[in-house]
Design goal:
Strand order of the largest sheet: 4-5-3-6
CATH architecture: 2-Layer Sandwich
Number of helices: 5
Radius of gyration: 15 Å
Number of domains: 1
Order of helices and strands: HHEEEHEEHEH
Largest sheet: 4 strands, antiparallel
Distance between the termini: 23 Å
Helix content: 25-40%
CATH topology: Alpha-Beta Plaits
Low-confidence stretches: 25-29
Number of strands: 6
CATH superfamily: ACT-like. Chain A, domain 2
Structural class: alpha+beta
Shape: globular
Strand content: 25-35%
Length: about 130
């Protein structure tokens, strides 16, 4: 894990910088706007992670090559962790959907194109866990 990800203040600053960059009109690639999707997924029983780190590790164990994901967050829903992660571009979305569908530990809940309001909300989310 990168040291700046472990420091909450540094991560908030990086999130702020990234968000400002996304708001700039130069967020274009080869003449097309960069589209960001929010992927929502949960553990597939019997896998029952207790921390955000465990859920992220399961995601990273099968992470598609050459696909950029960012801004992983979690929420506790009905006594289970639910993960949210951003992926840019249609090809990245397709690769992550395929990976989650093939996983025996994770299950895709939904995926949607993120509005700026969706991204703002996601970036403010924390990393709760089920460990007490």
């Amino acid at each position: 894990m990168r040291a700046d990800w472990a420091d909450e203040e540094k991560q908030k600053e990086k999130d702020r910088q990234w968000l400002e960059g996304q708001r700039q009109p130069q967020g274009r690639s080869q003449g097309r706007e960069t589209v960001t999707y929010i992927m929502c997924f949960e553990p597939e029983p019997p896998f029952a992670p207790r921390t955000a780190r465990e859920l992220l590790q399961a995601f990273n164990d099968n992470h598609p090559q050459r696909v950029r994901t960012h801004h992983f967050r979690t929420r506790v829903v009905d006594e289970r962790l639910v993960g949210y992660i951003c992926v840019d571009r249609d090809g990245g979305k397709e690769a992550v959907v395929k990976m989650l569908e093939a996983s025996d530990q994770l299950k895709l809940i939904k995926v949607h194109e993120a509005s700026q309001q969706d991204l703002d909300r996601l970036y403010k989310m924390g990393q709760p866990s089920l460990s007490r």
